[in-house]
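pasting for ref
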Amino acid sequence: MEFKAKELAEILKGTVEGDPEAAVSNFARIENGKPGTVCFFANPKYEHYVYECKASIILVNKTFNPQKPVSATMIRVDNAYTAIATLLDYVTEKRRSYRRHRGLHAKYHFSTKFGKKVYVGDFAYVGRHTVVGDFTKISEHVYIGDNVKIGSHCIIYPGVRIYSGMVIGNNVIIHANAVIGADGFGFAPLPDGSYKKIEHTGNVVIEDDVEIGANTTIDKSQTESTVIHRGVKIDNLCQIAHNVEIGEHTVMAAQTGIAGSTKIGKYCMLGGQVGIAGHLTIADRTSFSAQAGLLSNIKEPGTAYMGTPAIPWKEFLRAYTIFRQQGKK
């Protein structure tokens, strides 16, 4: 698929500086740009590549003031980083074909309800009384239990397991081998030292525009729902325990684990391998650096935490300075 600079500028609401007829058919990182590709420049430390880059088109911020000649055609936009995301999304959508398909080895029931142009791959299973919305793709080897509700324009990649009774909104992406709705880790200790399983009768509710990474697990609640609110982005290999609630547009990196009944606010950011204890409440816009471990509630919004046990980042840096000084003695 080929695009000219003037077409890209129209899509991105930008302005062309250079040849409006410059054409591209692929994307590249700015350090690897070559003729026929489009790159973007957003991080100042990569500025030298702008002058060396052989790409046909470079997306730059409107505020960029080049210090040397630039051979590529530039498209000036408000934010080059979000512009390339918009462009990738646009191209992907153009390439995507929506068609009704039922794999020869797929299995579903008379009571299963499919919307328009739903794709069901080979060896996928869709349970009784499950409802799947328009233009959703269920890839090969997916298991979807009974009484599940899935919205429209969802993508469910191979090997995903969705237990019975789960609720999934619109525009949700679930990557390969994720498990939605397994029992939470709930066991009651008995006098003899053994454990009695606590049955989990609730479900998982995933709202619109959520993306869930590969091999991530989200456990169903003991009662009521484990809730992933609108716009949440979860990386690969994360564990969300029973009765957890994650606020809108929160993001978490790989190997993060959240224990049961914790409530995380809106617009929070969790780095890789963050661990959060159970039954906590975390304020909106809280951020955690990688491997932070939280043991207590956070009431003040907009704060950043580091370390284990996690403490405000300024305190952590002061403490770390003392640790290094002690180590040198």
